[in-house]
Design brief:
Number of helices: 11
Number of strands: 12
Strand order of the largest sheet: 2-1-3-4-5-10
Shape: globular
Strand content: 5-15%
Radius of gyration: 19 Å
Order of helices and strands: EHEHEHHEHEEHEEEHHEEHEHH
CATH superfamily of the domain at 7-168 and 212-245 and 284-297: NAD(P)-binding Rossmann-like Domain
CATH architecture of the domain at 7-168 and 212-245 and 284-297: 3-Layer(aba) Sandwich
Helix content: 40-55%
Amino acid sequence: MNSDSKIYLAGHDGMVGSAIMHELHSKGYKNIITRALSELDLRRQQNVEEFFVSEKPDIVIVAAAKVGGIVANNTYRAEFLYDNLMIEANIINSAHQIGVEKLLFLGSSCIYPKNAPQPLKEEYLLTNTLEPTNEPYAIAKITGIKLCENYYRQYGDNFFSVMPTNLYGPHDNFNLQTSHVLPALIRKFHEAKTQNSPTVTVWGTGKVYREFLYVEDMANACVELLFSINAKDIYNSSISHINIGTGKDLLISELANLVAEIVQFKGTIIYDKSKPDGVYKKLLDVTRLNEFGWHEKTSLREGIEKSYKWFLENYK
Protein backbone atom coordinates (compact mmCIF):
# COMPACT_ATOMS: atom_id res chain seq x y z
CA MET A 1 0.00 0.00 0.00
CA ASN A 2 1.54 3.30 -1.12
CA SER A 3 0.36 6.85 -1.69
CA ASP A 4 -0.51 6.06 -5.32
CA SER A 5 -2.66 3.03 -4.47
CA LYS A 6 -6.13 3.18 -5.95
CA ILE A 7 -8.52 2.91 -3.01
CA TYR A 8 -12.24 2.21 -3.30
CA LEU A 9 -14.03 3.47 -0.19
CA ALA A 10 -17.55 2.05 -0.06
CA GLY A 11 -19.84 4.17 2.12
CA HIS A 12 -17.76 7.32 1.86
CA ASP A 13 -20.64 9.67 2.66
CA GLY A 14 -21.63 8.14 6.01
CA MET A 15 -20.22 8.98 9.41
CA VAL A 16 -17.65 6.17 9.28
CA GLY A 17 -16.78 6.57 5.61
CA SER A 18 -16.33 10.33 5.77
CA ALA A 19 -13.99 9.96 8.75
CA ILE A 20 -11.93 7.34 6.91
CA MET A 21 -11.83 9.59 3.84
CA HIS A 22 -10.48 12.46 5.96
CA GLU A 23 -7.88 10.17 7.54
CA LEU A 24 -6.70 8.85 4.17
CA HIS A 25 -6.33 12.38 2.81
CA SER A 26 -4.38 13.40 5.90
CA LYS A 27 -1.97 10.51 5.27
CA GLY A 28 -1.40 11.58 1.64
CA TYR A 29 -3.73 9.13 -0.12
CA LYS A 30 -5.47 11.04 -2.89
CA ASN A 31 -6.39 8.32 -5.41
CA ILE A 32 -9.69 7.43 -3.75
CA ILE A 33 -12.71 6.16 -5.70
CA THR A 34 -16.23 6.79 -4.40
CA ARG A 35 -19.73 6.31 -5.71
CA ALA A 36 -22.99 7.69 -4.37
CA LEU A 37 -25.96 5.35 -3.98
CA SER A 38 -27.61 7.05 -6.94
CA GLU A 39 -24.61 6.05 -9.06
CA LEU A 40 -24.00 2.53 -7.75
CA ASP A 41 -26.49 0.38 -5.84
CA LEU A 42 -24.25 -2.00 -3.92
CA ARG A 43 -27.12 -4.44 -3.47
CA ARG A 44 -27.09 -5.21 -7.21
CA GLN A 45 -24.51 -7.84 -8.08
CA GLN A 46 -24.13 -7.04 -11.78
CA ASN A 47 -23.66 -3.34 -11.11
CA VAL A 48 -20.98 -3.99 -8.50
CA GLU A 49 -19.12 -6.49 -10.69
CA GLU A 50 -19.12 -4.08 -13.64
CA PHE A 51 -17.84 -1.29 -11.40
CA PHE A 52 -14.92 -3.39 -10.14
CA VAL A 53 -13.96 -4.55 -13.62
CA SER A 54 -14.03 -0.95 -14.85
CA GLU A 55 -12.20 0.73 -11.94
CA LYS A 56 -9.83 -2.07 -10.80
CA PRO A 57 -9.06 -0.71 -7.31
CA ASP A 58 -5.94 -1.88 -5.47
CA ILE A 59 -7.40 -1.47 -1.97
CA VAL A 60 -11.03 -1.78 -0.82
CA ILE A 61 -12.52 -0.47 2.44
CA VAL A 62 -16.07 -1.67 3.15
CA ALA A 63 -17.70 1.00 5.32
CA ALA A 64 -21.03 0.83 3.48
CA ALA A 65 -23.94 -0.58 5.49
CA LYS A 66 -27.54 -0.05 6.45
CA VAL A 67 -27.25 1.10 10.07
CA GLY A 68 -29.41 2.38 12.90
CA GLY A 69 -30.15 2.22 16.59
CA ILE A 70 -32.16 -0.28 18.59
CA VAL A 71 -35.53 0.89 17.21
CA ALA A 72 -34.45 0.74 13.56
CA ASN A 73 -32.72 -2.62 14.04
CA ASN A 74 -35.79 -4.16 15.61
CA THR A 75 -38.29 -2.57 13.20
CA TYR A 76 -36.60 -3.03 9.82
CA ARG A 77 -35.27 -6.51 10.50
CA ALA A 78 -35.58 -7.88 6.97
CA GLU A 79 -33.96 -4.83 5.35
CA PHE A 80 -31.09 -4.83 7.85
CA LEU A 81 -30.36 -8.47 7.05
CA TYR A 82 -30.92 -8.42 3.28
CA ASP A 83 -29.32 -5.09 2.43
CA ASN A 84 -26.18 -5.72 4.48
CA LEU A 85 -25.77 -9.26 3.16
CA MET A 86 -26.02 -8.06 -0.42
CA ILE A 87 -23.68 -5.09 0.04
CA GLU A 88 -20.86 -7.05 1.64
CA ALA A 89 -21.19 -10.19 -0.50
CA ASN A 90 -21.15 -8.24 -3.76
CA ILE A 91 -18.14 -6.13 -2.78
CA ILE A 92 -16.06 -8.96 -1.29
CA ASN A 93 -16.70 -11.37 -4.16
CA SER A 94 -16.04 -8.70 -6.79
CA ALA A 95 -12.80 -7.75 -5.03
CA HIS A 96 -11.77 -11.41 -5.16
CA GLN A 97 -12.64 -11.72 -8.84
CA ILE A 98 -10.35 -8.88 -9.93
CA GLY A 99 -7.54 -9.69 -7.48
CA VAL A 100 -7.69 -6.73 -5.10
CA GLU A 101 -4.46 -6.44 -3.07
CA LYS A 102 -6.12 -5.82 0.31
CA LEU A 103 -9.66 -5.45 1.67
CA LEU A 104 -10.79 -4.15 5.05
CA PHE A 105 -14.34 -4.93 6.21
CA LEU A 106 -15.95 -2.99 9.06
CA GLY A 107 -18.39 -4.79 11.29
CA SER A 108 -20.02 -3.98 14.62
CA SER A 109 -19.63 -5.07 18.23
CA CYS A 110 -23.21 -6.41 18.16
CA ILE A 111 -21.77 -9.56 16.55
CA TYR A 112 -20.99 -10.97 19.99
CA PRO A 113 -23.36 -13.22 21.97
CA LYS A 114 -25.82 -11.54 24.30
CA ASN A 115 -24.39 -13.10 27.45
CA ALA A 116 -20.74 -13.39 26.44
CA PRO A 117 -18.12 -12.82 29.18
CA GLN A 118 -16.83 -9.27 29.53
CA PRO A 119 -14.76 -7.72 28.10
CA LEU A 120 -15.55 -9.19 24.69
CA LYS A 121 -12.61 -11.05 23.20
CA GLU A 122 -12.46 -11.74 19.46
CA GLU A 123 -12.66 -15.50 20.07
CA TYR A 124 -16.13 -15.18 21.68
CA LEU A 125 -17.70 -14.87 18.24
CA LEU A 126 -20.35 -17.58 17.60
CA THR A 127 -20.12 -19.06 21.09
CA ASN A 128 -23.76 -18.38 22.05
CA THR A 129 -27.02 -16.69 20.97
CA LEU A 130 -27.26 -13.05 19.90
CA GLU A 131 -29.22 -10.14 21.33
CA PRO A 132 -32.70 -10.55 19.71
CA THR A 133 -33.30 -6.86 18.93
CA ASN A 134 -30.35 -6.58 16.55
CA GLU A 135 -29.93 -10.23 15.52
CA PRO A 136 -30.49 -9.65 11.76
CA TYR A 137 -27.85 -6.92 11.56
CA ALA A 138 -25.44 -8.98 13.64
CA ILE A 139 -25.92 -12.05 11.44
CA ALA A 140 -25.18 -9.96 8.35
CA LYS A 141 -21.99 -8.59 9.90
CA ILE A 142 -20.87 -12.04 11.03
CA THR A 143 -21.35 -13.23 7.47
CA GLY A 144 -19.08 -10.43 6.24
CA ILE A 145 -16.39 -11.46 8.72
CA LYS A 146 -16.62 -15.07 7.64
CA LEU A 147 -16.57 -14.16 3.95
CA CYS A 148 -13.27 -12.32 4.45
CA GLU A 149 -11.84 -15.16 6.52
CA ASN A 150 -12.77 -17.87 4.06
CA TYR A 151 -11.70 -16.01 0.93
CA TYR A 152 -8.32 -15.91 2.70
CA ARG A 153 -8.42 -19.58 3.71
CA GLN A 154 -9.54 -20.84 0.29
CA TYR A 155 -7.85 -18.39 -2.05
CA GLY A 156 -5.23 -16.55 0.03
CA ASP A 157 -6.99 -13.20 -0.48
CA ASN A 158 -5.65 -10.47 1.79
CA PHE A 159 -9.07 -9.67 3.25
CA PHE A 160 -9.67 -9.05 6.97
CA SER A 161 -12.17 -7.42 9.32
CA VAL A 162 -12.27 -4.95 12.18
CA MET A 163 -15.05 -4.63 14.76
CA PRO A 164 -15.54 -1.07 16.04
CA THR A 165 -17.40 -0.38 19.25
CA ASN A 166 -20.23 2.20 19.40
CA LEU A 167 -19.12 5.16 17.29
CA TYR A 168 -20.12 8.83 17.36
CA GLY A 169 -18.94 12.10 15.91
CA PRO A 170 -19.30 14.36 12.84
CA HIS A 171 -21.87 13.22 10.25
CA ASP A 172 -23.68 11.11 12.85
CA ASN A 173 -27.38 10.31 12.49
CA PHE A 174 -29.42 12.53 14.81
CA ASN A 175 -32.86 11.26 13.73
CA LEU A 176 -34.56 10.17 16.94
CA GLN A 177 -36.34 7.29 15.19
CA THR A 178 -33.22 5.65 13.78
CA SER A 179 -30.21 7.01 15.68
CA HIS A 180 -27.94 5.40 18.24
CA VAL A 181 -28.03 6.44 21.88
CA LEU A 182 -25.35 9.14 21.99
CA PRO A 183 -26.51 11.31 19.07
CA ALA A 184 -30.10 10.83 20.26
CA LEU A 185 -29.13 12.19 23.68
CA ILE A 186 -27.36 15.18 22.14
CA ARG A 187 -30.44 16.09 20.14
CA LYS A 188 -32.88 15.46 23.01
CA PHE A 189 -30.98 17.60 25.49
CA HIS A 190 -30.38 20.37 22.95
CA GLU A 191 -34.06 20.56 21.99
CA ALA A 192 -35.13 20.46 25.62
CA LYS A 193 -32.77 23.34 26.40
CA THR A 194 -33.89 25.48 23.46
CA GLN A 195 -37.59 24.78 24.17
CA ASN A 196 -37.22 25.30 27.94
CA SER A 197 -38.55 21.82 28.63
CA PRO A 198 -38.21 20.82 32.30
CA THR A 199 -37.47 17.15 31.59
CA VAL A 200 -35.80 14.81 29.12
CA THR A 201 -36.88 11.19 28.84
CA VAL A 202 -34.19 8.58 28.23
CA TRP A 203 -35.06 5.07 27.09
CA GLY A 204 -34.48 2.21 29.50
CA THR A 205 -33.26 2.09 33.07
CA GLY A 206 -29.97 3.92 32.51
CA LYS A 207 -28.30 1.03 34.33
CA VAL A 208 -26.61 -0.67 31.38
CA TYR A 209 -23.04 -0.06 30.28
CA ARG A 210 -21.77 1.06 26.89
CA GLU A 211 -18.40 1.86 25.34
CA PHE A 212 -17.98 4.76 22.91
CA LEU A 213 -15.24 5.66 20.44
CA TYR A 214 -14.90 8.96 18.58
CA VAL A 215 -15.25 8.18 14.89
CA GLU A 216 -12.06 9.99 13.85
CA ASP A 217 -10.09 7.77 16.25
CA MET A 218 -11.72 4.72 14.66
CA ALA A 219 -10.72 5.95 11.20
CA ASN A 220 -7.15 6.40 12.38
CA ALA A 221 -7.11 2.83 13.71
CA CYS A 222 -8.46 1.44 10.43
CA VAL A 223 -5.86 3.21 8.30
CA GLU A 224 -3.04 2.28 10.69
CA LEU A 225 -4.09 -1.39 10.48
CA LEU A 226 -4.19 -1.17 6.67
CA PHE A 227 -0.60 0.09 6.81
CA SER A 228 0.73 -2.41 9.27
CA ILE A 229 -0.95 -5.82 9.09
CA ASN A 230 -2.16 -8.44 6.63
CA ALA A 231 -4.80 -11.14 6.76
CA LYS A 232 -2.28 -13.79 7.80
CA ASP A 233 -1.42 -11.77 10.92
CA ILE A 234 -5.01 -12.18 12.11
CA TYR A 235 -5.97 -15.66 10.96
CA ASN A 236 -2.68 -17.22 12.07
CA SER A 237 -3.66 -16.07 15.57
CA SER A 238 -6.83 -18.21 15.33
CA ILE A 239 -9.16 -15.21 15.35
CA SER A 240 -11.32 -13.79 12.58
CA HIS A 241 -11.12 -10.04 13.21
CA ILE A 242 -9.66 -7.25 15.37
CA ASN A 243 -11.70 -5.27 17.92
CA ILE A 244 -11.45 -1.47 17.76
CA GLY A 245 -12.45 0.39 20.90
CA THR A 246 -11.24 2.08 24.06
CA GLY A 247 -11.56 -0.79 26.52
CA LYS A 248 -13.53 1.55 28.82
CA ASP A 249 -17.28 1.91 29.35
CA LEU A 250 -19.79 3.80 31.50
CA LEU A 251 -23.42 3.63 32.58
CA ILE A 252 -26.01 5.14 30.24
CA SER A 253 -27.10 7.30 33.19
CA GLU A 254 -23.52 8.61 33.47
CA LEU A 255 -23.49 9.26 29.73
CA ALA A 256 -26.81 11.13 29.96
CA ASN A 257 -25.48 13.31 32.78
CA LEU A 258 -22.32 14.09 30.80
CA VAL A 259 -24.27 15.04 27.66
CA ALA A 260 -26.67 17.19 29.71
CA GLU A 261 -23.69 18.99 31.26
CA ILE A 262 -22.03 19.63 27.88
CA VAL A 263 -25.28 20.81 26.26
CA GLN A 264 -26.07 22.83 29.43
CA PHE A 265 -29.47 21.31 30.05
CA LYS A 266 -30.50 22.15 33.62
CA GLY A 267 -33.69 20.09 33.92
CA THR A 268 -34.56 16.61 35.15
CA ILE A 269 -33.69 13.33 33.44
CA ILE A 270 -36.45 10.70 33.47
CA TYR A 271 -35.80 7.05 32.61
CA ASP A 272 -38.58 5.21 30.75
CA LYS A 273 -38.18 1.69 32.13
CA SER A 274 -40.83 0.34 29.74
CA LYS A 275 -38.35 0.75 26.88
CA PRO A 276 -35.66 -1.86 26.16
CA ASP A 277 -32.13 -1.56 27.51
CA GLY A 278 -30.51 -4.04 25.15
CA VAL A 279 -27.60 -6.07 26.50
CA TYR A 280 -26.37 -5.22 30.01
CA LYS A 281 -22.76 -4.68 29.03
CA LYS A 282 -20.88 -4.61 25.71
CA LEU A 283 -17.24 -3.75 26.34
CA LEU A 284 -14.59 -4.76 23.81
CA ASP A 285 -11.31 -6.36 24.78
CA VAL A 286 -8.76 -4.32 22.81
CA THR A 287 -5.65 -6.19 23.90
CA ARG A 288 -4.75 -7.24 20.36
CA LEU A 289 -5.35 -3.75 18.98
CA ASN A 290 -3.08 -2.30 21.66
CA GLU A 291 -0.44 -4.92 20.82
CA PHE A 292 -0.41 -3.50 17.29
CA GLY A 293 0.51 -0.18 18.91
CA TRP A 294 -2.81 1.68 18.71
CA HIS A 295 -4.64 3.55 21.49
CA GLU A 296 -7.50 6.07 21.32
CA LYS A 297 -6.62 9.76 21.27
CA THR A 298 -9.92 11.50 22.08
CA SER A 299 -11.54 11.45 25.53
CA LEU A 300 -15.29 10.93 25.74
CA ARG A 301 -15.91 14.48 26.99
CA GLU A 302 -13.80 15.99 24.21
CA GLY A 303 -15.50 13.82 21.61
CA ILE A 304 -19.00 14.76 22.77
CA GLU A 305 -18.05 18.44 22.78
CA LYS A 306 -16.84 18.13 19.18
CA SER A 307 -19.99 16.20 18.20
CA TYR A 308 -22.27 18.81 19.74
CA LYS A 309 -20.39 21.58 17.97
CA TRP A 310 -20.82 19.73 14.66
CA PHE A 311 -24.53 19.22 15.41
CA LEU A 312 -25.04 22.93 16.06
CA GLU A 313 -23.28 23.87 12.82
CA ASN A 314 -24.85 21.27 10.53
CA TYR A 315 -28.15 19.86 11.79
CA LYS A 316 -31.33 21.76 11.07
